[in-house]
Design brief:
The chain has 418 residues and is an alpha/beta fold. It has two domains: 230 residues, Putative sugar-binding, N-terminal domain (Rossmann fold, 3-Layer(aba) Sandwich), CATH 3.40.50; 169 residues, 3-Layer(aba) Sandwich (Molybdenum Cofactor Biosythetic Enzyme, Chain A), CATH 3.40.980.20. It is 38% helix and 22% strand. α11 runs parallel beside α13 and α12 crosses α13. The structure holds adenosine-5'-diphosphate (ADP). The site of adenosine-5'-diphosphate (ADP) has 24 residues, from α12, α13 and α14.
């Protein structure tokens, strides 16, 4: 195994797995720390954790367990993958997890670069931009669990780590890999534990990949993986196909991102949909049973959507009464139950919007590993389950991080996988 990835959420894991697969590396994604499965001939194993919003100590412990598994199987380099919008709070978990990995590996220094220019995430002078907006002016400022109100990543990471955070700015990045390596050495020699690295184009990321060839640990968004396959001399090429699974289809959305709101609004105009309201769940309404009873007679005619996706005002209202954590849990549990019920009713193709939501859904379905299939939109592939408990049907899953995908994503995805 050339590379072991530890991803802090499920859709983030799928995103980086797609990046590596498209670059020609045989990639398998494990849901949680692998148990009872071996990597076979995989070049890369991506371990998808659900650690982004867990308590920091728990996130670090999960990550260290993943690290131990990957190192025992000979992973030559470790990538800690987080969101391209640096989703975290002052309590963590990017800093605490990266610190724990550095400590465990006995490594003094690593890089941090969430840039993903294809999806309009760029880092300039240490500041993260979403499109033309600073992160802190973007809709990420209203994320239900990790509101991002500071775009200066040197500061943001600095608040989360016991180490000092430096910057390798674009002029150095543009001088190429050798200049970057020199800058890393200089920072490391001055006692810095991290360098935020600027990147505004794929070229910058490719150069960064080359500059990181000898670092035992890297941290970043999926973009940082772009330049890594060349370091290993791997270029198998070709996107992987997955066989059709047939069956009924459904969409579940628990993401409240601006893009998911737009995608849900587009679907609701013409297609069957069922709304899940956290306030009604808190009042004891069994919306999972209601959603399944509603969906059952419709499935034969085409895909249905169950969603908790809501605009920031509605999210704030639910959170004011329930707290962010409780509101999120209620919705995740409900959508997970709906997912199980849908599979029992013959659904085999499932699109899920939201990282945390996807984590809850695959856990409820008992999915342990995913093979990466063709790309639907940047960062989002179709996947197929490779390890389900005995007797479980094989499923095709499209797990979409909240902000990803075009406005017609749900239709586009289902159109690709009949
Ligand atoms: P994203 O990928 O957009 O970050 P996630 O699924 O990771 O999406 O996170 C969204 C969180 O918001 C989940 O915990 C989800 O349960 C929660 N949530 C969904 N709908 C609502 C709502 N209407 N009110 C409050 N929280 C919600």
């Amino acid at each position: 195994m050339y590379l072991g990835c530890i991803a802090d959420d499920l859709t983030g894991a799928t995103d980086v797995a797609l990046m590596l697969q498209n670059a020609g590396m045989r990639t398998i994604q494990s849901i949680g720390v692998p148990a009872g499965f071996e990597p076979g001939d995989a070049d890369v194993v991506v371990v998808a954790l659900k650690s982004r919003t867990a308590p920091a100590a728990d996130a670090a412990a999960q990550s260290l367990a993943a690290l131990a598994w990957l190192r025992r199987r000979g992973a030559g380099q470790i990538l800690f993958k987080y969101c391209s919008t640096f989703d975290s709070t002052d309590a963590g978990n990017i800093g605490p997890v990266a610190d724990a990995l550095l400590d465990a590996m006995g490594v003094p220094f690593t890089v941090a670069c969430p840039a993903f220019p294809t999806n309009k995430r760029t880092v300039y002078l240490g500041h993260l931009f979403v499109g033309e907006q600073l992160l802190s002016d973007s809709p990420m400022r209203d994320h239900p669990l990790t509101p991002m109100r500071d775009a200066n990543l040197v500061r943001v990471l600095g608040r989360q780590t016991k180490r000092t955070v430096g910057l390798v700015a674009l002029p150095t990045v543009r001088q190429g890999a050798a200049a970057m390596k020199e800058a890393f050495e200089k920072l490391r020699g001055s006692g810095y534990g991290y360098a935020i690295v600027d990147a505004v184009s794929d070229q910058d990321l490719l150069a960064l990949g080359a500059a990181c060839a000898e670092l035992p640990l890297l941290t970043g968004g999926s973009g940082i993986a772009m330049g890594l396959p060349a370091n290993f001399g791997v270029r198998r090429g070709g996107e992987a196909a997955i066989p059709a699974v047939g069956g009924h289809a459904a969409v579940l959305s628990g993401s409240c991102s601006a893009q998911s709101n737009a995608q849900v609004a587009q679907w609701v105009k013409t297609r069957p949909s069922f709304r899940i309201d956290p306030l009604q769940l808190a009042d004891g309404m069994d919306l999972a049973t209601a959603a399944l009873a509603w969906a059952e007679p419709l499935l034969a005619a085409g895909p249905v959507l169950a969603f908790a996706t809501a605009e920031p005002d509605a999210v704030r209202k639910a959170q004011a009464r329930l707290g962010a954590q409780r509101a999120g849990e209620l919705v995740e549990q409900c959508l997970a139950q709906v997912a199980r019920g849908l599979v029992e009713r013959g659904v085999r193709r499932l699109v899920v919007a939201g990282g945390e939501t996807s984590g809850a859904v695959v856990n409820a379905l008992g999915v342990r590993a995913l093979r990466i299939g063709p790309q639907i939109d940047p960062g989002v592939p179709w996947t197929q389950t490779v390890e389900t408990p005995v007797g479980e049907p094989r499923l095709a899953l499209a797990l979409k991080s909240g902000n990803f995908g075009t406005i017609d994503f749900f239709d586009k995805a289902l159109g690709m996988q009949q």
